[in-house]
Design goal:
extended; GIY-YIG endonuclease; alpha+beta; 45% helix; Nucleotidyltransferase, domain 5
Length: 612
């Protein structure tokens, strides 16, 4: 599979992409809000390219992507991967100090404050946060609700009992409850810190409720400025309250495994994400063939056991997307190699389950790329939907090549037709065709229009027998189908290709000679394939009809200019694209297109029409 085909399968959500050279080394790491569009932009000729970018593109042999749930997570994962691989073409290499965290200090009466320095002293660190401003808004919101000390005093029981401290301004403005002078017990303060932890770990409902109540109270007393500040705090909390999955400094080392299976293609993929020091370091995958008869649990067990049989590092915790049929052998292997017990879990809710869903999404993406490779390597592969369509329609051969026709018009004017081609259940856009219908101008006659387009399509010999369709699909009921059958008979090819009509109202499938529709289950893969083909033909016809109507409108406007005929109008539209662009073109550009005399008349008309 070439790069363009691979990029077409990329998701449109956020994540990180890695460009690799011919040796497989990572040469560039980037983040994206839309992975497919961002990676595709590297290969657009219209994109400005400096020397460094041209060299990078010349060296790219492969691209790998990792999906995330948010752009902030993509930003932090990009940071981790840049530090891990040190890519040649990443200029600004970041480290952990780029992004601050929130620290809950391990001390009596803990403080809560931002920091860029992580110290292994038992304190809790949450983050890092990609947006410093929003993090500060969250801290201010916490301090406006909870009474938490901001001083750095050593509040031991002995120091408090000896009266070494005095209350400060924070106490008098009710931002602190005065633990330094014994006015607040350590148990009460610890309960407040517990609530702060809940908030920072995503338990925002209670805090948001308190803020909203306070906001409404301020608004009722016409304190609109204070209400606005509270509104901004609520928005900041809602944006950043969820604990970020990419980094959390106090979690154990973890390995996360997910397996995705495609039994139709007899293939599966196992994906492993490694979390070290709270950071996802990247993705490891293994391709599995000949999976027929194997359950996803057995595949997971084989993947995990084969990985740890050769591993040299063993985490504290292993998370799986599906439970293993048995744990004993794996537990014994891990205990023997790691020298300690390793926890194996399948999370169902909470932060771990959310993280596992991201791993599963990446597993599905890798599987989709793998199955395309299989199809390219094995041209004899027939999708399941094509096989069941042959069965449901009682066809003599597999409908590997399908052509579908649709008619589009606007009240009988501008009637056009489309013909789309699907090969093995996928669009073959190089064989799409569009037609201007000549026989029905000024009236609504879909039957006659269908007769015309089918006749024009199949009149004469085919360019190549490999493009002779196995099945023709007509968008419409019995009337449109009868018109198409008559056209095939007139051009002498009826009987060489199967033909059916698909009526949209009840999704009924009609075949020639039968008054009753063929009964196909609504959830059948065969009916879904027919619907997909029909919908694509409808989309293509409407798009072409709108283009023709737009061109006709523009051409009619230009035909009002003296000495400009249809040929000259089309020439102008090919050069400039629209009347608006002609109006903004230079005189030399118009003269170069239509000559000096016609250009003068055109500009005079446009100036006059603009002044009206």
């Amino acid at each position: 599979m070439d790069l363009k085909e691979k990029i077409a399968l990329f998701p449109t959500g956020p994540g990180v992409y890695q460009h690799k050279d011919a040796t497989g080394a990572v040469i560039y790491v980037g983040k994206a809000k839309n992975l497919r569009n961002r990676v595709r932009s590297y290969y657009q000729e219209s994109r400005p390219r400096d020397g460094r970018l041209r060299i990078l593109i010349d060296k790219i042999s492969d691209v790998e992507v990792i999906m995330t749930d948010t752009e902030a997570e993509a930003l932090i994962l990009e940071n981790n991967l840049i530090k891990e691989f040190k890519p040649r073409y990443n200029i600004n290499l970041r480290d952990d100090k780029t992004f601050p965290s929130i620290c809950i200090k391990n001390e009596p009466f803990p403080r809560v404050f931002p920091t860029r320095r992580i110290v292994n002293d038992g304190s809790t660190y949450l983050g890092p946060y990609a947006d410093v401003g929003d993090m500060k808004l969250m801290l201010r919101a916490i301090r406006s609700i909870f009474q938490i000390r901001t001083c750095s005093l050593n509040l031991t029981d002995k120091n408090i009992a000896e009266g070494k401290f005095q209350t400060c301004l924070e106490f008098h403005i009710k931002k602190c409850a005065g633990p330094c002078v014994g006015l607040q017990s350590e148990e009460t303060y610890d309960e407040t810190i517990r609530q702060v932890r809940q908030l920072l770990n995503g338990k925002t409902r209670d805090l948001v409720g308190l803020l909203k109540s306070e906001m409404h109270h301020c608004a009722a007393e016409m304190k609109f400025e204070e209400a606005g500040v509270l509104r901004d705090r609520i928005r900041a909390i809602e944006r950043h309250s969820a604990k970020q999955k990419i980094v959390s400094h106090d979690v154990p080392d973890r390995d996360l495994f997910a397996v995705s299976v495609d039994y139709d293609r007899d293939a599966a993929v196992g994906v492993l994400f490694k979390v070290r020091d709270g950071k996802i370091l990247g993705r490891h995958q293994k391709y599995i063939r000949q999976v027929e008869g194997a359950s996803i649990q057995r595949l997971m067990q084989a993947f995990v056991e084969s990985y740890y049989a050769e591993a040299t590092f063993f985490p504290s915790e292993i998370l799986l997307s599906t439970q293993l049929p048995e744990h004993d052998a794996l537990h014994e292997l891990l205990r023997e190699k790691a020298g300690r017990k390793v926890s194996i879990r399948t999370p169902e809710r909470g932060e771990k389950a959310q993280l596992m869903r991201m791993v599963e999404a990446n597993s599905d993406l890798v599987l989709s790329e793998f199955t395309v490779e299989i199809e390219r390597a094995n041209e004899s592969y027939i999708p399941h939907s094509v096989r069941v369509l042959k069965r449901d329609l009682h066809l003599n051969r597999l409908p590997r090549l399908i052509e579908c026709f649709d008619i589009s018009h606007l009240g009988g004017t501008g009637t056009v037709a489309s013909c789309v081609t699907f090969k093995d259940g996928r669009p073959l856009k190089s064989r799409y065709r569009s037609y201007k219908i000549r026989s029905t101008e000024g009236k609504v006659d879909d039957f006659k229009a269908m007769h015309e387009v089918v006749s024009r399509r199949y009149k004469g010999s085919f360019e190549d027998d490999q493009f002779r369709p196995d099945l023709i699909v007509i968008d419409g009921g019995k009337g449109q189908l009868s018109s198409a059958v008559l056209a095939l008979k007139e051009v002498g090819v009826y009987g060489e290709m199967a033909i059916v009509g698909l009526a949209k109202r009840l999704e009924e499938v009609f075949v020639p000679g039968d008054t009753d529709p063929v009964l196909i289950p609504k959830a059948s893969a065969s009916l879904r394939l027919l619907q997909r083909v029909r919908d694509e033909a409808h989309r293509f016809a409407i798009t072409f009809q709108r283009k023709q109507r737009s061109k006709k409108t523009l051409t009619s406007e230009l035909l009002k200019v003296p000495s400009i005929g249809e040929k000259t109008a089309r020439k102008l539209l090919r050069r400039f694209g629209s009347v608006k662009k002609i109006r903004h073109a230079t005189l030399d550009e118009i003269i170069d297109t239509v000559g000096r005399h016609t250009a003068a008349r055109l500009l005079a008309y446009l100036r006059e029409s603009e002044g009206r």
